[in-house]
Amino acid sequence: MTNIDFVFTEILPIIKNKPQDMAEYTKKQMSLVNELLHDMPQYACPSFCSSCCSGSILMSYVEYINILLSMNETELEHIFSSQLGVMEDGGKLRCPFIQEDKDKEHCAIYEVRPLICRVFGTSASPCQEEIKFPQFPDELFYHAYNTLYYMTEDSFIGLPLPDDLVLYEAPFDIWAIADSGKTAELIDIFKRHGSMRSVLFNLNDNSFFTMKEDGKRQIISWNK
Ligand code: SF4
Question: Within this chain, do residues 32 and 62 fall inside the same structural domain, yes or no?
Fold first, then answer.
């Protein structure tokens, strides 16, 4: 594993104060999503298993803020000093919330883990143990997704980047860099490593895209 060239401890003082602006809105949206997920069939992953916790786990800005709000000062310092910016083999970001201590729950933020971990986790990669995972109805999933990603039908929640770009969906590490205002540095990181699955929006042609390691843009078309 290697690290991306960015000093996360330097941005922690800025990030610590960030959630407050969005706290009320985030809590409201998360409460709506939790109501929707309440009806989702339950399943139990073995607590030690993190088989599906790899490959740049994407989340909305609202979920990123919700995770920040859930962490105390010590936890934030631990995450920002040693867990962020770690690249797995294959050029994706390792989830910073995986706990290696097998006596602990594998996920340090299990109660506030992103939607993708709740809904697609077990179907995204082979499980170590056979478990029955739920078929979450598409309709409910997109309702929850839109609650997290969109303020209105036409207006999503993202962070502005240089070159008329907006960050739409990203791993926690990438949201933190963008949220700190170090957006030029973030674009440089994307140029070196690709966007590591982060999804950007181009204001000039209204397209969503990811950036590959060679810098080429891969346009995404969604049917939601
Ligand atoms: S947030 Fe938790 S459940 Fe999701 S990938 Fe990370 S460790 Fe796994």
Answer: yes
pLDDT at 179 (0 to 100): 96
Based on the domain organization, do 93 and 202 belong to the same domain? no
Question: Are 18 and 120 members of one domain?
Answer: yes
pLDDT on residue 91:
87
155 Cα distance to chain centroid: 19
Is residue 111 within 8 A of residue 70, CB to CB? The reply is: yes
Q: Could you report the per-residue pLDDT of 186-195, keeping only the tens digit for each?
A: 999 999 999 9
Which residue has its alpha carbon closest to ligand 1 atom 2? Answer: 107
Residue 127: predicted pLDDT: 66
Distance 163 CA to ligand 1 centre (A): 32
Ligand 1 nearest atom to the CA of residue 57, by list position: 5
Structural domain boundaries enclosing 163 = 155-220
Q: Which atom of ligand 1 is nearest to the CA of 117?
A: 4
Same domain, yes or no: 76 and 134: yes
Say yes or no: CB of residue 127 within 6 Å of ligand 1.
no
Closest CA to 136 of 127, 126, 124, 128: 124
Unique residue bearing structure tokens 């919330």? 97
* Residue 106 in tokens: 């594998």
Phi, psi of 118 (to 5 degrees): -75, -40
**Does residue 124's CB lie within 6 angstroms of at least one atom of ligand 1?**
no
